[in-house]
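Example for tutorial group B:
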């Protein structure tokens, strides 16, 4: 997976013009009767990135995706998809959404489902859609209602990819897939995204797998954005400071402690590297640090776990994820009403 800081070019070398935003949010908020599901969220997702959307249950991930796909309207703030309002013809035409429910007509056959996709989408790619279905040996003549949950997910994937969207939004797409199918569809996703410059926003609780597909990251907690930016720039802004068991605490100044515990990471302190049995402190760097024992950049999984366990740390929005001026966003909408 390419983790270039400036582009996300795939094997075909696709690169968007510098500065193109797939999504831009400014002061975005959504209030339901029970309260705010999302509050004061501002970020930009550069075009062509595969972005993981991570957060605890109820953090606001689905709400954000529903706002981008215009299934709900924001209470506050402004949101743009490729510079256009969500729900505008341009934004809808360029976006595909695979929701958790994956609604499909149960009485349609797989072939009929794909035909419907073709009829509804001018950019439809039958080869891609059929390839995804046939790779799972799902018969084209089978009715959707007779398929297993995982097979239905595969058909829903085929519909989403066949649409050839510029922005593909996937809400926890992997939960009912077996590990091999997950891997295969993830490879399809990254290859398609790289070849066509597709921007992908994928929510998932499967942290270890996200690091194989994502080069960009949005972390939400309690309705607020905690972390946004390139995976590489976010990792480089942190360090995992390890100390031998019972040994002296690592020197923390001038850094900000994100999480301090006996075990940082999935399998113990820096366990992902097989160095178990050490205490660890995840810090946001406030000054230079020399990597090499006892400091190392965290893996994506370690970074995510640290932020998920510490939802109240101040947000870090990396430079590449900072949105443009709110006035630029709004004046694009109402050029005639601007007087000065
Ligand atoms: N239609 C709704 N009406 C009222 N409250 C809602 C509605 N949809 C979501 N919420 C609330 O908004 C908050 C955010 O929910 P959301 O579904 O966006 O979270 P999520 O991050 O997608 O969670 P999960 O990981 O569990 O899917 C939650 O407190 C939820 O109860």
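The residue assignment follows.
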């Amino acid at each position: 997976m390419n983790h270039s800081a400036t582009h996300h070019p795939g094997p075909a070398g696709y690169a968007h013009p510098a500065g193109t935003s797939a999504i831009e949010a400014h002061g975005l908020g959504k209030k339901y009767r029970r309260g705010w599901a999302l509050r004061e969220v501002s970020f930009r997702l550069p075009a062509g990135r595969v972005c993981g959307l991570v957060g605890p249950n109820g953090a606001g991930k689905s709400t954000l995706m529903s706002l981008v796909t215009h299934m709900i309207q924001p209470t506050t703030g402004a949101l743009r998809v490729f510079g256009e309002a969500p729900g505008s013809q341009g934004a809808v035409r360029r976006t595909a959404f695979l929701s958790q429910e994956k609604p499909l007509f149960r009485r349609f056959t797989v072939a009929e489902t794909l035909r419907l996709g073709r009829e509804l989408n001018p950019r439809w790619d039958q080869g891609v859609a059929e390839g995804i279905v046939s790779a799972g040996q799902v018969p084209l003549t089978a009715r959707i209602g007779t398929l297993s949950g995982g097979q239905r997910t595969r058909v829903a994937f085929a519909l989403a990819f066949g649409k050839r969207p510029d922005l593909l939004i996937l809400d926890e797409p992997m939960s009912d897939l077996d590990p091999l199918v997950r891997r295969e569809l993830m490879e399809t996703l990254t290859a398609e995204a790289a070849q066509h410059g597709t921007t992908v926003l994928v929510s998932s609780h499967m942290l270890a797998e996200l690091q194989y597909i994502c080069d960009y990251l949005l972390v939400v907690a309690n309705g607020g954005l905690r972390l946004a930016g390139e995976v590489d720039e976010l990792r480089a802004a942190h360090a995992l400071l390890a100390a031998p068991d019972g040994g002296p605490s690592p020197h923390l100044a001038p850094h900000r402690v994100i999480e301090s515990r006996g075990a940082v990471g999935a399998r113990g302190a820096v366990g992902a590297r097989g160095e178990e049995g050490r205490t660890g402190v995840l810090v946001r760097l406030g000054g230079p640090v020399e990597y090499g024992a006892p400091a190392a950049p965290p893996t994506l999984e370690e970074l995510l776990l640290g932020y998920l366990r510490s939802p109240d740390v101040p947000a870090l929005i990396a430079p590449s994820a900072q949105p443009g001026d709110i006035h630029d966003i709004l004046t694009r909408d109402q050029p005639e009403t601007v007087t000065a």
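Residues 32-34, 37, 55, 57-63 surround adenosine-5'-triphosphate (CB under 6 Å). Compare this with the pattern of hydrophobic and polar residues in the output above.
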